[in-house]
Amino acid sequence: MTTWTVAPEPYDSPVAAALWRAYYTEVSDRYYLLHEGRRTDPAELEREIAAVTGAELTPPTGQLLVGRYGGEPAGTAGVRLLPDGRAELTRVFVHAGMRGRGGAALLVRAAETAARTLGATTLILDTRTDLAEARALYERLGYEETAPHNEQVYAEHWFRKSLG
Description:
alpha+beta; Aminopeptidase; 7 strands; about 35% helix
């Protein structure tokens, strides 16, 4: 039986970099295909991937987790501690071919545990309307939709969950 494992991973490892590229490519292409009928411009994709390194997902104030399915890197979730003591859930992603096997929920639960370890009592996140699968996952895991907590350009839905 093939199983999932989840473990911390340095944000700048080759595995993390490959998963970040896959994540960013998917969410960017989904946005541009929906709103502009095109895929992400390759130069824009490279600029954005390079600009958002993930360095904030480093202990002691952050953590990047990698999920492996049958030993192969298949997904990520990250948390970063905010100045107000909350933590933000970010980079939740599972490769398309690995979805529907419980990995996303496992990664989010592991990220909740990591956030508690960092000292957070609340986990927040933002997402987009077109990422309906993500919104359904968060609702299923007990996240409540809230008023906006940031002004991110692509954020359309905001969620929170008490970790207490």
